[in-house]
Amino acid sequence: MIIFLIFIVILQQFDGNVLGPKIVGKSVGLPAFWVIFAILVGGAMFGIVGILVAVPTFAVIYRLFNLFITRRLQAKEMPDKTGLYKDPPEEEIEEIEIKAKPSKRSFDFILKFIRKEKKEE
């Protein structure tokens, strides 16, 4: 009897924390992590209503952010496929040309950081 109860609790935890978010995530276009994140944040901020509204709202925000990033990469003539950044084929590494140029603000920030480190020494 105790073994059966332990099995049921484990099964419920697996269903609620792994399987459910994966299924919901595929139907709304979110990874399982972001489904759980949206539910936790929505529930913490707005209670039951937040839990119900969090996943669809976060799916819209996630999609808009994806479109924004994709357009920015295309504007810089950089590949927008995630796989190319994770594990590019070795023969294509030489062919990929970096076209994004760092801004002056980036260099200024780095120089300030380096100067700050030297002063602390």
Structural class: mainly alpha
Work out the strand percent: under 5%
Total beta-strand segments: 0
The chain-level mean pLDDT equals 78
Per the principal axes of the C-alpha atoms, what is the gross shape?
elongated
- What would you report as the Rg, rounded to the nearest angstrom? 22 Å
> What distance separates the N and C termini?
65 Å
Poorly predicted regions are none
Counted up, domains total: 1
Number of helices: 5
Descriptive account of the structure:
By secondary structure, the protein is mainly alpha-helical. It has one domain (about 1-120). About 80% of the residues lie in helices and about 0% in strands. The chain contains five helices and no strands. It has helices at about 1-30, 30-75, 80-85, 90-95, 105-120. Helix 1 packs parallel to helix 2. The protein is elongated. The mean pLDDT is about 80.
Ordered list of secondary-structure elements with their pairings:
Elements: H1 2-28, H2 32-75, H3 82-86, H4 90-93, H5 104-120
Provide a compact summary of the structure.
The chain is mainly α.
Key structural traits:
single chain, about 80% helix, about 120 residues, elongated, mainly alpha
